[in-house]
Amino acid sequence: MPFSLPKLNTFRARLIFYIALLTIFLATTLVISLQYTRSIMLEGALNQISSTTALLDRQLLIENNELQRYTNIIRDELRIQKIMRETNTGKIGKKLNNLFNDQFGWLPVDSYLLVDSKGAFLSGRGPDKLLSIIDYEKPSKAQTHYLKTPRGVELIAHSPVYFKQQLLGHILLSRIYNISKLRMFEEQTKGHLFVVKDNTIILSTMSSAMKKQIPTGADSLVINQNNYALQPIMLNRDAHQGVLFYYAVSDTDFLNTIQNYTQLTSFILLFGVSGVLLLGVFFLKDFDKPLISLLAATREVAEGHLPIITKRIPRNEVDQLSNQFSDMVTSLREKQNVIDESQHKLERLTITNVLTGLYNRRYLQEIFPKLLAQAARDKSPISAIMIDLDYFKRINDKHGHLAGDLVLVEFSALMRSHSRANDYLFRLGGEEFLILTLSENAAGTLALAEKIRKAAESTPVTFEGESIPYTLSCGISIIYPTEHEPNALNTLLSFSDKSLYVAKQAGRNRTHLYNNDASYRDTKSVHY
Asked: 3.30.70.270, 1.20.1260.10, 3.30.70.100, 3.40.50.1820: which CATH number matches 361-526?
């Protein structure tokens, strides 16, 4: 039987019927909006946790690879090998120590140890417990480990030293992960980092989390009646040491936000429905024209629009109803704007670095294919400027991490002010930055790098009344890609990194261009 409206013989009956329909519509719209918003907020929070975990994984992996690279540099130093071949062990340690301090004292490591092929100590500094990771049965294998020591948890890179296939000994470098290091990660991610061994938290900035048990496969943990969502950081895990990392975010704040939003929406729903019903009782005459306008507005809302309704001069009750509806739609629009802004902030957080506001590595992966396609269409090169702040660890050690953060922030602002509108600025991690640009030739890229380098050299940072000078080393690479070249980004970054390494080895505070053009394969160093 087809649906038909009930017979409404009076205008009052029709008015009451239409007001009832309007009330149901408003209530349904707000309830659906509430459910939809809750789903968006929950999905956004989960995506943020996953993205942040991936960024932490990437950052820890970069530090792992960097420490292994430093170990290989020392291992391949011929003077190290020459001293280790000597037979007078009493003089070997002093010579090795002097050579290390002179040539590799700039390395950002907390410990280094040199031992002979039988494990006897030769030179270095650091706890003897680090020597326990050396596998003498497989001396040719270079490794990295996480080890619990009295100083905290240490990332250790180990590499055997050979000369003409003869094992001379072993070298170990380490970095300490302590409370300060974890706090630095947490300031960037707005979460907590737990270091776990044997399912027990052994390092955390939260004293109440220490010695808490995390069962294998657990995705949440209760600390002080607060529930924390857990995400494991998927590093290469050492089977013997069993040190794991977890990223944790409190669910309590998020649930409170949803609850507050639910209460506010319920209040708006109650207020709106009550207002419509109360006003409907008094609307008895002269309603046709304003009601037609009001119903037209409700149809727009039903279609998913939130129109701007001009308020009327309140000459009668119908005008007041129209004005109330205008306020309600405005309130909905404002709440929708708040939701949109929150979503925009979440998206911005996933592609930018929290401290500097520059793009992060995730956005680098997203934007590079577009730049690659544009460069292929325009038949123009892609240039990369890899920038590293010289002796940045000294700034942190001498002035503190707050001063170091200020240097990073002000340098980021300096890069923005001296770069061009079509340049993409990234913070890769620590004191390492990257500029991607589409340029016609190397001269323009060199000019940009030198402009930034000179500006940094002449613009010290003031912290607590003290001037902190700093300099930069820049490595430049340029490639001519095709649109479907799969390894273009890795190639570009590899060349830039090599060029940066040459600039640092040449004395720092300079710019170096890695030229891989087929017609010109040597390198040139530019230092004005």
From this structure: 3.30.70.270
Is the C-alpha dihedral spanning 355, 357, 358, 363 positive or negative? Answer: positive
pLDDT in tens, 442-479: 888 999 999 999 999 999 999 998 999 999 999 999 98
The third-level CATH classification (topology) of the domain covering 46-253 is Beta-Lactamase (3.30.450)
| First vs last C-alpha separation in the chain | 89
Q: How far apart are CA 213 and CA 199, in angstroms?
A: 6
d(CA 433, CA 345): 23
Q: Quickly count: other Cβ atoms within 10 Å of residue 203's Cβ.
A: 21
Cβ proximity of 190 and 254 under 8 Å = no
**263 contacts: CB under 8 Å, gap ≥ 6:** none
Let me know if 520 is exposed, middle or buried by CB neighbors in 10 A (0-12, 13-18, 19+). exposed
Half-sphere exposure of 388 (CA within 13 A, CB side): 19
List pLDDT tens digits, range 85-138. Answer: 876 666 787 888 888 888 888 888 888 888 888 878 888 888 877 777 776 666
CA atoms within 13 A on the CB side of 354: 11
Q: Is the pLDDT of residue 376 over 70?
A: yes
Question: Contact, 527 vs 474, CB < 8 A?
Answer: no
Q: Give the 3-state secondary structure of residue 134.
A: coil
- CB-side neighbour CA atoms (13 Å) of 471: 11
Beta bridge partners of 424: 436
C-beta separation of 269 from 31 below 8 A: yes
DSSP string, 467-518: EE---EEEEEEEE---TT-TTHHHHHHHHHHHHHHHHHHTTSSSEEEE--BT
User: 0.90 exceeded by the pTM?
Assistant: no
Neighbours of 448 (CB within 10 A): 22
What DSSP string runs through 430-464?
Answer: TTEEEEEEE-SSHHHHHHHHHHHHHHHHT-PEEET
Please state, in angstroms and rounded to a whole number, the distance separating the CA atoms of residues 418 and 378: 25
Answer yes or no: are the C-beta atoms of 169 and 161 closer than 8 Å.
yes
What secondary structure letter does DSSP report for 285?
Answer: S
